[in-house]
Amino acid sequence: MANPTFSRNPAFNGRGGAPTQEVTPESLQAMYNAPSASAADTGRMTYEDTINKAIGLFAVLLVGAAVGWLVPGLAIVGAIVGLVLGLVNSFKRQPSVPLIVAYAAFEGLFVGGISRIFDARWNGIAVQAVLATLVVVGVVLALFRSGKIRASAKATKIFMIAMVSYLVFSLANFGLVAFGVLDTPFGLRAGVLGLVIGALAVLMASYSLVLDFDFIQRGVRSGAPRKLGWQAAFGLMVTVVWLYVEILRILAILRGSD
Q1: How many Cα atoms occupy the beta-carbon half-sphere of 51 within 13 Å?
Q2: 222 in helix, strand or coil?
Q3: Which of 5, 42, 87, 148 matches a 20 to 30 Å C-alpha distance to 188?
Q4: What would the mean pLDDT of 111-124 be, rounded to a whole number?
Q5: Per-residue pLDDT at 8 exceeds 70
Q6: Backbone dihedral angles phi then psi of residue 73, each to the nearest 5 degrees
Q7: What proportion of the chain, given as a percentage, has pLDDT over 90?
Q8: For residue 44, what is the DSSP state?
Q9: Helix (H) or strand (E) segment spanning residue 90
């Protein structure tokens, strides 16, 4: 007996609808040669589209960094506005392209300004920090693609606990420095303790990169909406900037008073 679902459908019973076109070797070859659907055609997240978004955001960040390098005083403006925009973007349910781009611009002011301040004290330290950051990102990406490191529920839980502890310590340290309790620029993050905390922060930032890559991979494999590529690019940029600042601080502690 015929399937009633198919028998009532004109596409299957030959009644009504478009006439059936004969399948020939030529038509099959034409279908094979036709270009595959792009992200714009499918509306789905792809690696290429997400990479392009990330490159665009980092380009905006570099422009802002160039301005911040020329006018170091803008670092404080970039830090405050960047923090606000970062929190807004992190808690938005849907990514907002204008807010993400604005974050990249103001975060660039902060990165450029603080890099110029550090470089004036320790000549060449900004270049060293950039190279070290690129090495860490490259190594983590290579390990992730090879399958040697993966995000796991247990590791992510430990990461979240460590992050909360790190944020509480950072806020307390900032308060001690801001109110003059400690008279060193890095506060409790100086000397050996500063190096240990910095190393732990780099490890956390590295695992955060794993989470970013995992988010992108899962998004592409599950056919997530294309707009989530902006969220992935935003998260990747936040992590890379965090990693850069931590490495910059570690290098400053290592170089001491030279």
Answers
A1: 4
A2: coil
A3: 87
A4: 95
A5: no
A6: -60, -20
A7: 68
A8: B
A9: helix 75-91
Judge contact between 176 and 170, C-beta under 8 A. Answer: no
Instruction: Examine the pLDDT at 15 and tell me if it is beyond 50.
Output: no
Element (H, E) at 217: helix 191-221
Residue type, 43: G
Query: Encoding tokens for residue 2?
Result: 């015929």
Q: Are 58 and 103 in contact (CB under 8 A)?
A: no
3-state class percentages of the chain: helix first, strand second, coil last, to nearest 5? 75, 0, 25
Q: What local confidence, expressed as pLDDT, does residue 255 receive?
A: 87
**Span 207-214, average pLDDT:** 96
CB-based contacts of 17, cutoff 8 Å, min separation 6? 10, 11
Q: Which of 154, 34, 54, 139 is nearest to 104 (CA)?
A: 54
In the chain the beta strands, taken as DSSP E runs, fall at: none
Amino acid letter, 40: A
Whether residue 12 contacts residue 6, with contact meaning beta carbons closer than 8 Å, is answered with yes
